[in-house]
Structure formats: C-alpha cells, structure tokens
Design a protein that fits this description.
Blueprint (H helix, E strand, L loop, with lengths): L27 H14 L12
C-alpha cells in the first residue's frame, strides 16, 4: 500500500475531501482491459500503477 495523499495548493486544515474506491469483482473483461492499460503505461514516469488485488 502506498500513501497517495498530500496537501494540494490552497488546502488548509478542515478542508473536506471525498474519494471513492471502486471494485470490479468478477468482471474479468474489466480486469483484462486494466492490465493492458497498465502494461502500456508502465514506462510513464510519475505514475503509480495499482495492480489488481
């Protein structure tokens, strides 16, 4: 697990932020497509590609 949280410009204590984590359990086509994109993007500097669990 990596820490992907950081203060963004203009943020201060008390600022609210909503996030969602979507799962696609049992969606083999989605997992296959995501794997293809991860492979295509693996050499792009600065990206944190997240593998399927």
């Amino acid at each position: 697990m990596r820490n992907h949280w950081w203060w963004r410009p203009g943020w201060a204590t008390g600022r609210r932020f909503l996030t969602w984590h979507l799962t696609f359990a049992g969606q083999d086509d989605v997992h296959r497509l995501a794997a293809q994109y991860r492979d295509a993007l693996k050499d792009v500097e600065g990206l944190s590609l997240i593998p399927d669990p």
